[in-house]
Amino acid sequence: MTSMSTTTIFTGWPALPSGGGIRFGRETPPARSAAQGSAAADPCTVDWVLERGGALAPRPVRWLLAGAGALALGIAGLLRLRGAELVMPLAGIELLALAAVMLLALRHATDCERIALHDDRLTVERVSGRRSFRVVFRPAWVRVEPRYGDRSLIELSGQGRRITVGRFVRPELRSQLAEELRWALRRWQQRAVH
Prior knowledge:
34% of the residues lie in helices and 24% in strands. It has 194 residues and is α+β, with helices and mostly antiparallel strands. It folds into 2 domains: 25-53 and 109-193, Pleckstrin-homology domain (PH domain)/Phosphotyrosine-binding domain (PTB) (PH-domain like, Roll); 58-107. The radius of gyration is 24 Å and the shape is rod-shaped.
């Protein structure tokens, strides 16, 4: 699953060849020059944020854990009053196991991939748990593979560096993301030349 952001299509850019427009990214039109009254020479920028889909977020998980703990300890307390002596230690073990599982799940709740086409660079950052990996490319030299129709991850390469993206995009939509990246890079090159 992916979290898709809403976009505002800049009218200076034609739609993608497939007619779909930008789906995964967010465009920012170039700054306007007061003297020229038109778009400056800087190309438009596009940002993509591909996030893990899911309902896990730190605050709701804390409330869920607190509610489950209160319920388990309440029931264990009632059973303890009725004479079940091992219930309280077992409830504590149960809560520790639940907390450990929740912490493991939360560790990757904020995993994401960020791709930014700004100025004269394409920056790709992949965040997984506490680790972050970042690669910076010159847009004129970036290759986007595999070709349209393939459901595998998308590889961005250039200048001796490589990184794969698309982990949080459904396999059937990865080709659309690859086409969107190619389109943005072509538009960047066309605007950078002028």
